Amino acid sequence: MKKLVLLLGIFAIGISANAQKKWTLQECVAYALENNISIKQSELDLQATDVDKMTAVGAFLPSLNASAGLSENTGLSFNPVTNNAQTTTFLSASGSINVGYTLFDGLRNFRTVQRAELSQLASQYRLDKMKDDVSLFVANGYLQVLLNKANLEVVNSQNLVTLEQLDRTNSLVESGMLPRGDLLEIQAQDASEKQRIAVAENAVRISLISLAQLLLIKDYESFDVVDEGYAISGTEMLLKTVDDVINSAEESRSEVKIAQSTVDIAEKDLQIARGAIWPTLSAFFGYNTRYTDATSFTQDLDPDNPVSIQPIGTVQETGQTVIGEFPNTINRLVQPDSFVDQLYLNDGISYGLQLSIPILNGFQTKGAIKRSQINLERSKFQLEQAKLDLESNVYQAFVDAQGAGKAYEAAERSLESQELAYQYAKDRYDVGRTNAFDFSQSKLRYDNARIEVNRSKYDYIFKIKVLELYFGIPATELKF
């Protein structure tokens, strides 16, 4: 009994520890990369290109097909072995093996393999981009949770100060040193801060649920993240020129690589379409045989009367009859040969070359070439647009990161000023030199300054990471 209680206790502790697990940012990113549905779909797309390449390579192999048939005939039918018409019931079987091989098809098979390899590369680029996007989404969601938690900590800590002031003011009011209006002002401030606490707690909960949903974690209630104070890192990115970032982005970012691979695929499609103009030369080899259990008749010389004499004409001048000798035959029923013997005796072989020359097919080949040319030009425009979009995005990310840095510095300076002003107002309020309303306004400005520092800090961190991604740093190697 004691052992059972001990085991149950250990099991309960294990469940509690698992339920209280807090996720780090690295764990969240790794989990998302392994379980995200969009990433899994991109991985399936990559597997599909593997199948396409296997099929393209298989076109270089000869085709090999075998067939067999079994039938029973009743009534007037042709014997498949003797080709004589018979009114009977018999069983027949046939089999064949055919081999075909394309010797030349305008290099379409070769270029189809090249196209499949390019499709593989393009799918890999799409998968890499999807992983970068998901990692960035997770990082943004994670930082949003930290921001909301930091803001909740601010309003909670300031409410503790308000509660202390509320107790002190209540004592001073009861002693007649302060008017009752000051007490009401502090009480109103306390109520307002509790409302802000409720809003902040709700924001934390919603951001945790959003992050859990992004990670496909169903246990919303116990999901939580590690409350790490992430420092600002990667500011050296702002020391680079925007041209350096753009050049690195064009070499490393998947957007341009995807567009470039689309152009390469379109060029291969055009080559494949033009290959249909050339003749196709193929070789073939076939082997077939047959079997039947039908009996047949054969004509043999009559051993008793092998020859019969019959008139065959008359000589016109003399009227003399001309006679001739003819073999005298009799019909004899012949049983079918054995199955193995018939397979050997009734087989046949065919082989040769086949040349197919395209002459006119309703402009299908010409139309396919024209469409491929149009698609190639369209893909080139898309490549140029992708480069322009990437350049615009890098400029935007660079300016955003610079602006976020300046906003963070300004928020810190504002916090320093508001903290001094708040401390000054608190000291004056403690000695009765200012009223509760002015003190609460100073405190509110100080609270807002702390919240703004938190917001600008995590916004600055996130925008630096976006800039690092454009510079070519993989999402899994970003430092927080």
CATH homologous superfamily placement of the largest domain: Outer membrane efflux proteins (OEP)
In the CATH hierarchy, the third-tier topology of the largest domain is known as Outer membrane efflux proteins (OEP)
What is the 3D form?
elongated
Q: Indicate how many domains the architecture comprises.
A: 3
Question: How would you classify the helix and strand content by structural class?
Answer: alpha+beta
What CATH architecture label of the largest domain applies? Up-down Bundle
Helix content: 55-70%
Number of strands: 8
Top-tier CATH class of the largest domain: Mainly Alpha
Mean pLDDT: 83
Largest sheet: 4 strands, antiparallel
Low-confidence stretches: 1-19
Calculate Rg over CA atoms.
45 Å
Distance between the termini: 50 Å
Please state roughly what percent of the residues sit in beta strands, choosing from under 5%, 5-15%, 15-25%, 25-35%, 35-45% or over 45%: 15-25%
Order of helices and strands: HHHEEHHHHEEEEEHEHH
Number of helices: 10
Report strand order across the widest sheet: 1-2-3-8
Main location: membrane
GO cellular component, one term: efflux pump complex
GO molecular function: efflux transmembrane transporter activity; porin activity
Subcellular location: Cell outer membrane
